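Let's study my pick:
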Amino acid sequence: MRDTLGKAFIENFLGGSPDWYKVTILGFLVINPFVAVYIGGFEAGWLLIAEFIFTLTMALKCYPLPAGGLLAIEAVVIGLTTPEAVYAETLHNFPVIMLLMFMVAGIYFLKEMLLFTFTKILLGVRSKVLLSLLFCSVAALLSAFLDALTVTAVIITVAEGFYGVYHKVASGKGLDTSHDYSGDDEVYELHREDLDRFRAFLRNLMMHGAIGTALGGVTTLVGEPQNLLIAKEAGWEFGEFFMVMAPVTMPVLIVGLITCVLLELTGWFGYGARLGPDVRAVLRDYDRHESERRTARQKVVMLVQAICGVLLVLALGFHLAEVGVIGLAIIVIATAFNGVTEEHRIGHAFEEALPFTALLVVFFAIVAVIHDQGLFTPVTDYVLALEGNTRTSMFYIANGVLSMMSDNVFVATVYISEVKDALLAGELTVAEFNLLAVAINTGTNIPSVATPNGQAAFLFLLTSALAPLIRLSYGRMVMMAFPYTITMSITGLLAVYYLL
């Protein structure tokens, strides 16, 4: 009986993840208290960051919430942070949580219209280079006025729709039949190679789109959450923010788009996958099939969704309310006028975002540890001691490196607070403060594309239901982001040093 219960416990712990992964997580949980007590909280904090990043890298083996959540709970228990600090960090980021809960669900209710629009684009643009450039540039443009998470939710919805259509046909199902596309057991052997190529094609578009959200998000006051915070501390309005950032953001945007083209032309780092003729034929048949059978009621549904899309862009562009509130309004309008009144149909829209919302709160617990243990303080003190262009450049580098490991919003919050305190203390002039504010904003937004840790939009993509379908792992995301990281980060650094 004892052996049976013990075996059952091991099997239940972290479910179907590999045994070595389970042992590793247990090892983390055992060693952390000893490091905290006998070495120190500072060292234990950095160890915790490394462990949490490890759980993110293994996202396709085990969703990071259970393992990462255990690490966060232990951090509170052994005194690396407090429940109050975790709550305060979560409350500070409540707009992001509302965005995830309501905006992602709102995008779900626009799915038919989005799939229709992007199907026309996909079938109309035959050049993969042009299509990739289109995805990257449109994502950049939208992110400049909307929010990177919102834009990422849109492209995830579109890619998942494409994948579901082809996977259904590759499994021998009709376009009208329901189908579970989470596994390949029913996929005909004849179609498996095409399916793998289609996965690579979607990975390319998703990464180009994700990079585009970073390229556009850094340019305007509303593009990323930390932009608004930095602008508030510096007293910049929308136009002024764009102009002071432009010497850095515009060269980076140009280089980013050039990188997109070169990657597709060379096929390096996993890019260059083409849409196979068989897959294109399936998508064309799907488009024709949907057009022929579309009823008047379905046309009204798409019309309402299109109107909701316009309202969404206008509301976000003019900042009529918090992003999450706007998302909730879209849910209400889209469901009310399209006859979605059943609780289970509405509830299904929240399935994608809520696991990630829970994971993000766990991440805020790790951020609370960073704050309480002063993990970034030595770097801050060192950089503030420098002068001139060297100090500005080092602020860019320090923010970039730390944003690769931690949340870029938190890094920006810490550094702009330190710089504002130095300004108030008379250690900096207003001109020096403005230069450092630009370095902080661009540093936290540009190099942070290196890993999914740095940007919430990237982490959302990694932990979405789409990622395992198209085989987009943590390591593959890092590899595919690498050329962008190098070209964009170096361009940003040179611009910070020579153009500011």
Notes: The mean pLDDT is 86.
